[in-house]
Amino acid sequence: MRAVVLDEPGPVEKLALRELPVPEPPPGWVRIKVEAFGLNRSELHTRLGLAEGVTFPRVLGIEAAGVVDADPDGVLEPGRQVVTVVGGMGRTFDGGYAEYTVVPREQVIPFSSALPWETLGALPETLQTAYGSLTTGLDLREGQTLLIRGGTSALGLAAASLAKDRGATVLATTRNPDRAKALALHGVDHPLVDDGAVAPKVREIVPEGVHAGLELVGTPTLPDTLAAARVHGTVCFTGMLSNQWIVKDFYPIEYLPRGVRLSAYGGGSADLPPEVFQRYVDRIADGTISLGPVHVYSMDQIRAAHTDMEQGHRVGKLVVRV
Question: What is the reported pTM?
Fold first, then answer.
């Protein structure tokens, strides 16, 4: 099979497309014929040497969409449509940047859909993280206000769609003024141009502050996102688009605004029940919800795709169609 291998951290040229043996699934694991896989900041962090606990050489990829190719225990039938996310993929065992991947059955999510694979390949990790952040991380309710810091990322767009679906009012940021229109077209109620201090702009719209904030940029913008939240509001730290996630010399009483709560989210397939995934797949298929644009590459274009992700050239999700 063909697979994208990283022998050691480094620049995009370290990504090598190679022929590898098709892996054999042990008991309790499933082999998936990968049809498409999404690109994620997690893989960028691994390539840059920022991720912990990674062993090399490694086939990258924390998600994949495809069909069951082999299940030694006979639980999942061959040809069954499935997605899989995280659980060590692309870090402690080989991941989804390949024509076949072998993963624990417990992290496989079955579904049924006639959507094209490039659309389905954009969903598992983005949908899992957006859904988990809004539910577990923020407990977002109908009628509440949500600020998304990093709104034109694939995760930001997905979170906006899911928040609107839950009946929330959404404010979302972009550093590029030209992309504010894209946020509005996506259904964001209040697109904001991020100049580093959006809290005053937020309070012009919601004087008491937002009920919830979703931090996708990282620690450089976290204090300002916290400042945009109301008393008893919650900010969930989920993303690190800035590649920075450590708060140095953290003194909670000084760092956190009075009465504002700080949570975090990092989940897996168990946080995205099959019935929830199927419901959103069906709603995407009938056009009642969109998670944003999808930009499709071939495996031969993996270096170009990683460059576009690293440089922020695209709005939306980057997907490789295998």
Answer: 0.92
